[in-house]
Design brief:
- It is a single chain.
- 41% of the residues lie in helices and 14% in strands.
- The chain is α/β, with parallel strands linked by helices and 516 residues long.
């Protein structure tokens, strides 16, 4: 059971107690506080921003709704935003990714706040590991609902769920109705989203419309969420300015690559305890996440095969010594399958029916539709057997495929097709997340400065309906903040060398079009 304080039940009515929250168990706060304290030592970028803005409260007046994996590292991000003056509410962006100790510690608050388990004084969090879809979207809705009935004026998103909820809420309020759910053709989660918006409109038919007017900007963490933003921008439906954090070099080339290199094997080992050396592993997709995943598996002695649609990525994989083949050719051969594409229907039920007995199937892309979990659930010839939390065996009966019959066999699926490194382990380590989250804080500062008429860190003006990337100067600053921690010493250009290259001695050192 999760714990919660008494809280409002109707939008627009005042809460009888604050802060409101819902987490697994506040008694985990002591463990969480120790974990956060140790993580802070590995997150020099965020700690540097706290020091830089100490006492200045540059985010005072910002009401930030955050939807991002509620981990120990995210706790350091949340408390950094609060240190900078923001009023923050938080939920996780994945039903399995919350670290319950971190969530409890954030709610109770830091030691200097005087918060206790009996009297929490931290930040409202609505997240626990193992939420249902209905609980997940309830938590998401609570995150955008302040105790006084108002909403956020800033969003920090990972995957775009908060942004989606607000935009669809505005769309359906304008239409005067919420469309019916088509159970045959629509994903199960879409029905839950529709119900969430339908219930909101019944209470307040202008809630999302008024909320959207107050929102000054969104910073988006991940590839899939950014893709959604660009689609809305192209369609002219994006309601506020957005910063694409994902494509900062110090995010995508570090979190996506080096983070996955660390956490993929961590998730596989914690879930399965299977020896990886000598196994044939297929990685679907060779973007930054796929590159990190392939390195992770090869480092354990796997024979790694890549599947790709992009000839450039395929050629990169070949030049790194990987075999590039099709999934169809590898189904009866490989022992491990990892999806890392950001697309849907990568591994279908029919694919899994053809795999080796006890093949391992996992996803390290963003959503759960890379692997056909809905198809597994609907197939009457497939039986699910839970081994432990976030580790399931799907048993296939003696059914025909490709003109043949095969005896009963099973595949092992991690984290119900969701992010296995967070569902089965604790995600990326603190140091690499410090780089990502330093970008997030800078993005929130820039959007808020823009909205309040202050000079932005980037010098950029942000307009509604547009998606922006933080400039190279800030990207380099994020990297610079992390070098001392690992003992790196930068070489400095002489004035004549800088003049020869036509750049400043202090950077930026690469053109905007440079690809790291």
């Amino acid at each position: 059971m999760s714990q919660t304080m008494k809280k409002k039940t109707n939008a627009g009515k005042k809460s009888v107690a604050a802060p409101d929250y819902r987490v697994k168990d506040l008694n985990l706060a002591r463990l969480g506080r120790d974990e956060i304290r140790l993580a802070e030592q590995e997150m020099p970028g965020l700690m540097a921003l706290r020091e830089r803005y100490a006492g200045k409260k540059p985010l005072k007046g910002a009401k930030i709704a955050g939807s991002l994996h509620m981990t120990v590292q995210t706790a350091v991000l949340i408390e950094t935003l609060a240190d900078l003056g923001a009023d923050v509410r938080w939920c996780s962006c994945n039903i399995f990714s919350t670290q319950d100790s971190a969530a409890a510690a954030v709610v109770v608050g830091r030691t200097e706040s005087g918060g206790t388990v009996e009297n929490p004084k931290g930040t409202p969090v609505f997240a626990w590991k193992g939420e249902t879809l209905e609980e997940y979207w309830w938590c998401t809705e609570q995150t955008i609902q302040w105790p006084d009935g108002s909403g956020p004026n800033m969003i920090l998103d990972d995957g775009g769920d908060l942004t989606l909820l607000v935009h669809k809420g505005v769309e359906f309020e304008k239409a005067g109705k919420v469309p019916n759910f088509n159970a045959k053709n629509d994903p199960e989660e879409w029905g839950v989203i529709l119900d969430t918006i339908r219930n909101s409109i019944a209470e307040n038919p202008k809630r999302f419309t008024e909320m959207a007017k107050a929102i000054k900007g969104v910073s988006e963490e991940t590839t899939t969420g950014v893709h959604r933003l660009y689609e809305m921008q192209k369609a002219g439906k994006l309601l506020f300015p957005c910063i694409n954090v994902n494509d900062s070099a110090t995010k995508s080339k570090f979190d996506n690559l080096y983070g996955c290199r660390h956490s993929l094997v961590d998730g596989l080992n914690r879930a399965t305890d299977v020896m990886l050396g000598g196994k044939v592993a297929v990685v679907c997709g060779y973007g930054d996440v796929g590159k990190g995943s392939a390195q992770s598996l090869r480092g354990q002695g796997c024979r790694v095969v890549i599947t790709e649609i992009d000839p450039i990525c395929a050629l990169q994989a070949c030049m790194e010594g990987y075999e590039v083949n099709t999934l169809d050719n590898m189904l009866e051969i490989a022992d491990i399958f990892i999806t890392a594409t950001g697309n849907k229907d990568i591994i279908t039920t029919d694919h899994m029916r053809r795999m080796k007995d006890k093949a391992i199937v996992a996803n390290i892309g963003h959503f759960d539709n890379e692997i056909d979990m809905a198809g597994l659930a609907k197939d009457k010839n497939v039986r699910r057997h839970n081994i432990k939390p976030q580790y399931d065996e799907f048993v296939f009966g003696a059914t025909p495929f490709a003109g043949k019959k095969r005896s009963t066999h099973s595949v092992l699926v991690l984290a119900e097709g969701r992010l296995m490194n967070l569902g089965c382990a604790t995600g990326h380590p603190s140091f690499v997340m410090s780089a990502s989250f330093t970008n997030q804080v800078m993005a929130q500062l820039d959007l808020y400065f823009n909205a309040t008429g202050k000079p932005t860190l980037s010098g950029q003006k942000y307009e509604p309906g547009q998606v922006y990337i933080l400039p190279k100067k800030l990207d380099e600053e994020v990297a610079r903040l992390h070098l001392d921690k690992i003992g790196a010493k930068l070489t400095r250009l002489s004035k004549s060398q800088a003049d020869y290259l036509g750049i400043s001695q202090d950077g930026p050192y690469k053109a905007d079009h440079y690809r790291y």
